[in-house]
Design brief:
The complex is a heterodimer. Chain A is mostly helical. Chain A is built from five helices and two strands; from the N terminus they run H-H-H-H-E-E-H. The two termini of chain A are 24 Å apart. Chain B contains eight helices and four strands.
């Protein structure tokens, strides 16, 4: 059974959750987010991450500020907003709930 | 002898050979298509260009002024295909948080009048085929009232409610894009970003450099 393929759509749906979590921990720019996610099941690419971040920003879950960098042009550093933090708590709660349900179903 | 093109990626000048240029153009064009209905299209494209420019800079050795086609290919592979509306859910673009109700008239970038209101079926929150959700959005009333009306008509109207529903399924198109969803709710959908993007097209200049490729 190829778990990676089976859970592909679920991982995709959870990417938003993973990104919110990564951003919740610290202020990051995109290359750093990709680094944090690389090597995990949620490894992704710029082509996916930029549209996702733009939606999260429209939904006012994240915001960014420009910061100068030592090398090259200024970067957009993303961080969670207050509604973003609440949304993340809700997501975490729901995820926990799903887990509990799955565990309970077998018993 | 190979032709080298100087490109301007988000105000960074790079030189790439013809194959690389073609690959890059194809990538950015497909990104534009994927983001066709994204309200933040211009910003995302500019972010993507910046990311490519950053990667080009990394690929540059101090003695190299030209980014090879192979490097461009590698960079674009690293970027990955740009997620379009179907993959990257924008269905919520017409949600309550999106209504620019707070935007004072005249304070905006201009041209943001009220959008046209159109009758669409709305899949989001539908019970059956999205007719009631669409009607409710169009009339700006709670969808429950529309459903109650249909059920009443179906029961007491000699089946008229049912018939009307079925007819409306065929008459009303489904709102697929964020643009259509905005129209379904009578919310403005900004074309400003699209215009911005058109003005800011990748500028290209052609320059030839002997043996410089690679």
């Amino acid at each position: 059974m190829d778990l990676s393929e089976k859970f592909g759509p679920i991982r995709k749906g959870l990417l938003e959750f993973a990104v919110l979590r990564v951003v919740a921990a610290e202020k990051l720019y995109v290359a750093e987010m990709l680094q944090r996610l690389a090597g995990t099941e949620f490894a992704t690419q710029e082509g996916t991450l930029y549209p996702l971040l733009s939606r999260l920003r429209r939904e006012e879950l994240v915001e960014y500020e420009w910061q100068e960098s030592d090398s090259g042009p200024p970067r957009k550093y993303y961080k969670l907003t207050e509604p973003g933090r609440r949304a993340l708590d809700e997501l975490a709660g729901y995820w926990q709930h799903l887990n509990d349900t799955l565990t309970r179903l077998g018993n | 002898m190979r032709k080298v093109t100087t490109i301007n990626l988000n105000h960074n000048a790079y030189q790439i050979d013809e194959d690389g240029f073609e690959a890059l153009r194809a990538y950015l064009e497909s990104a534009e298509r994927a983001l066709a209905n994204n309200p933040d299209r211009a910003e995302i494209l500019s972010d993507l260009e910046q990311a490519i420019a950053d990667k080009c800079r990394l690929a540059h050795g101090p003695y190299k002024t030209v980014v090879s086609a192979a490097e461009i290919d590698r960079i674009l592979k690293e970027m990955g295909p740009v997620a379009g509306a179907s993959e990257e859910s924008t269905a919520r673009a017409a949600g309550p948080g999106e209504a620019p109700a707070a935007g004072a008239p005249g304070a905006g970038i201009g041209g943001r009048g009220p959008g046209p209101r159109r009758l669409y079926r709305i899949r989001e929150g539908q019970k059956w085929c999205g007719v009631c959700t669409g009607l409710a959005a169009y009339a700006a009333v709670d969808v429950t009232w529309v459903r109650v009306a249909f059920v009443m008509l179906a029961i007491f109207g000699g089946g008229f409610g049912l018939l009307a529903y079925v007819v409306l399924i065929f008459v009303m198109p489904v709102a697929h894009t964020p643009e259509e969803l905005s129209a379904a709710h009578g919310q403005p959908f900004s074309a400003q970003e699209l215009v911005d993007r058109a003005k800011k097209k990748v500028t290209t200049g052609v320059r030839s450099a002997g043996l410089a490729a690679g």
